[in-house]
Amino acid sequence: MWDIRTVVELMRLEGEEKPYYEYGHRLEIANTLTEKEGTQYKYRRYPLVALRLDIPEKLINGLQQVSLNVAFITFTDENYKASQRYEKVLVPILYPMVEKFFVCLKKSGIFTWEGHQQYPPCDPIDRPYWGIPDTEGNIKNIFQDPIDAIELIDLKLNKRPKC
Predict the structure, then answer these.
(1) Domain residue spans in the chain?
(2) N or C: less crowded end of the chain, CB within 10 Å?
(3) pTM of the predicted protein model
(4) Residue 78's CB: how many other CB atoms inside 10 A?
(5) Which DSSP symbol is given to 161?
(6) Mean pLDDT split into 10-residue runs, the chain, 163 residues
């Protein structure tokens, strides 16, 4: 979907099976991960690159322009405090994963973005112990598993349409 799979495959070419890739609405992705739980793929869920649908597209000057929402997700220990999440998960696992994604996004040759920026415009959000928010913390996990994540909101990319 929107060739993000190609970028994730480039990330894997460095000798690992990971990260895994899913796309869909958040509930669909959560259900897919839950379905894998009792199968041979139960360990093939994290780390995960997830592309959230729906994706509005514009066709301007022969380019498809999109604003994507991509999340980088990994399993975490639900007992960690915020400082431990940064020390043990976000900084050593998720930050390098996002960096590698940007490098492979550029390397793919599929996408362009405005300006001469090293990275495309987006709004990254650290999501330690990502869940459904309430005023005093999360009231429910986003997925069945406890997860930490980094979400790239409004990732602006261009691509030539396939004819």
Answers:
(1) 4-159
(2) C
(3) 0.89
(4) 10
(5) P
(6) 80 78 90 85 87 86 89 93 95 95 90 85 92 59 84 91 64
